[in-house]
């Protein structure tokens, strides 16, 4: 199995380098690369960065670019890392693409932090891709949801079945 991993940005990839005026975040190299380098994966993967944005800054043009990339790439197992604020919107925009299993995931705490949920969420997403044949899904909070049957609880921030 080979998985295409697409970085779009979001908290999962945030880094907080020290600057002269304190700390300011930037979206850096893909967190998935660091996670998989230490995970001894039994599969091949390719990581590409389409854009590095906070999910609240993702535009219709960005989503068009992502969907076009998905439609034109030969991969049939795809993991997309994304910010949690608009993750559902992007998943629903992508929709189901014939012959492709797509899972979007992110993190509430940057991968660079020791108490991050990033590695857990990526692991759940990869596990889901092992079982999925087609469709677009979201993997967050240890759960896997159909992209059109999930909501983010405004009070808890948790993803829940709709």
UniProtKB/TrEMBL annotation:
Highest taxon in the source lineage: Bacteria
Gene Ontology molecular function: asparaginase activity
Domain (L-asparaginase N-terminal) ranges: 2-156
InterPro entries listed in its UniProt record: Asp/glu_Ase-like_sf, Asparaginase/glutaminase-like, L-asparaginase_N, L-asparaginase_N_sf
Active-site residue list: 11 (o-isoaspartyl threonine intermediate)
Gene3D superfamilies according to UniProt: L-asparaginase, N-terminal domain
Name under which the protein is recorded: L-asparaginase N-terminal domain-containing protein
Lineage: Bacteria, Pseudomonadati, Bacteroidota, Cytophagia, Cytophagales
């Amino acid at each position: 199995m080979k998985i295409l991993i697409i970085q779009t940005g979001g908290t999962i990839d945030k880094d907080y380098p020290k600057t002269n005026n304190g700390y300011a975040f930037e979206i850096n190299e893909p967190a998935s690369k660091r996670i998989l380098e230490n995970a001894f994966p039994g599969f091949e993967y390719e990581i590409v960065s389409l854009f590095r944005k906070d999910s609240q800054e993702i535009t219709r043009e960005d989503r068009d670019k992502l969907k076009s990339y998905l439609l034109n790439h030969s991969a049939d197992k795809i993991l997309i890392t994304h910010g949690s604020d608009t993750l559902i919107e992007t998943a629903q925009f992508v929709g189901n693409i014939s012959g492709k299993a797509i899972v979007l995931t992110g993190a509430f705490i940057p991968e660079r932090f020791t108490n991050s949920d990033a590695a857990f969420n990526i692991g759940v997403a990869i596990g889901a891709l092992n079982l999925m044949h087609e469709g677009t899904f979201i993997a967050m909070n240890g759960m896997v949801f159909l992209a059109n049957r999930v909501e983010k609880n405004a009070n808890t921030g948790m993803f829940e079945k709709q």
